[in-house]
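Shift notes (night). Ran Nramp family divalent metal transporter while the centrifuge was going.
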Amino acid sequence: MSRILSPPSTFTGRLKYLGPGFILSAAIVGSGELIATTALGAKAGFITFWVIIVSCLVKVALQLEFGKNAIYTGTFMMHNFNQLPGRKWGRAHWSIWLWLSLQGLKLLQVGGIVGGVAIVLNMAWPAIPVNVWAIFSVLITSFLVYRGQYGLVEKGSLVMIILFTAVILMSLILLQGTKYAIHWEQVKSGLQFSLPTSLVAIAFGAFGITGVGGDEIMYYNYWCIEKGYAAYTGPNDGTPAWTERAKGWFNVMYLDAVLSMVVYTVVTAAFYLLGAAVLHSGGAVPEGYEMIEVLSRIFTETLGPWAKNLFLVGAFFVLYSTLFTATASWARVWGDAFGALGWMKFDSAENQRKSIAILSWILPAAWCILFLFIQSPVLMVILGGIATSILLLLIVYVSLVFRFKELPASLKPTLIYDIFFWISVISILTVSGYGVIKIF
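Came back to this:
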């Protein structure tokens, strides 16, 4: 049965079809913001604020290319990777093997999130050990998402976005009435584009993990398809009617992506400023099991001791939103990748549901096991951020192919769009390339 649908032409009409960006925002505002961003602010003070802002703003153009690719092809990302020009090793394109080679560090990253969730729950109910909370958290998450229902993931993400955004903005506003009040000169010093050598590694990791990262850009394809953007557009039959529908759904997707960017940029900036203002002045850098306790000072020193419970609520939703959406997203992209490699079947709706269900249990179990052995959430998240920065280089290459090789000529964007696209590409190549050279 055809699902072709004319796109809404008004702003309010487009709002009704938003959703993939909610999932991305919930995924983004988690490990990067609560852990990597505040750790960078605690170590560097205000001086690297520009890294966070640039990280949030420059990647969205690549996200748009992946979203457009989902709409005009209607096929999943790893399938599209497998159609890229270049060598294949076995059944899969080299880009899929490169993606797979980075997943060891990415497993560590989400393992750090599992640890963060467990530590928060242990602080609230200390009678239950951290390790038990870690196991309980992944079991509940797997149960919630294994059926692969898009609507549940979207609604759950939206609720968590509202909760953690309200909590973090409240804390930043109330900070201005304390001795840690932020002044314009401090913010200005963080916008000077300077980066001490001693901070390169952590800034490189933060750049990869804050804002929309390489992983989230890839995930966006799956969520745009499941939302229905591609089905509403219909197969490309070369007609002017198809072109008009595609452009209309592009506009819906643009609004979805830009509003998502606004949310995660504001929240990320707030986390960084809180870390720089409160933790850097006291020399407190969150590490290991003490991570959550140290981070709670952001709230208790600005709002008073009573605010520790408020912090725990905010921290739980920030971290759990990433665990929840990562489980749903990873199950899809890994199932798709394993399908391209011939390790699983991902070629029909039924096989996709089965693969997602299986991986929704296996992947969280792997994250949990890694945390139980390593027990260092901050280190695990930073290592994952470095892998994400490397993955961004692959995303840049694929985005260039999508924009200049795959995009139908009838959907060619405006000059202003292309200028912004090239600014994004150059910024990512410059920062990621600099980080790779400094680290390796």
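Residues 145 and 328 are 6 Å apart (CA to CA). The first strand starts at residue 88 and ends at 89.
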